[in-house]
Amino acid sequence: MENLETLASAISRTLFDLDVPYDAIRIDARDGAVVINGVPAQAARGALDHALCQARLRVQTLPAGPGFQIRVQPGQD
Questions:
Q1: Which of 53, 1, 56 is nearest to 31 (CA)?
Q2: pLDDT digits (tens, 9 = 90+) for 30-73
Q3: What is the three-class DSSP state of 46?
Q4: What's the farthest any 2 CA atoms get from each other in the chain?
Q5: Distance from C-alpha of 64 to C-alpha of 52, rounded to nearest angstrom
Q6: Nearest one of 1, 60, 3 to 30, comparing CA atoms
Q7: Alpha-carbon gap, residue 27 to 42, rounded angstroms
Q8: Which secondary-structure segment (H or E) carries 4?
Q9: Cross-strand partners of 63
């Protein structure tokens, strides 16, 4: 869980640095993922996806109401 908290903190800083708007960020301990809800823009999502993949994280983007849900897990397939 501590690793997920560290990952969530790093993702939060990345969202801020890239000026990516979002509604909420949470830890899903059951799946071992950090979940970002409400990421709206395609361009902002692209920059975020690129940064997360550069960090060798697994990224899954799903449509979720207004905006998108991005699930991030340590490691890369």
A1: 1
A2: 999 999 999 987 777 888 989 999 999 999 989 887 889 999 99
A3: helix
A4: 31
A5: 20
A6: 1
A7: 23
A8: helix 2-17
A9: 68
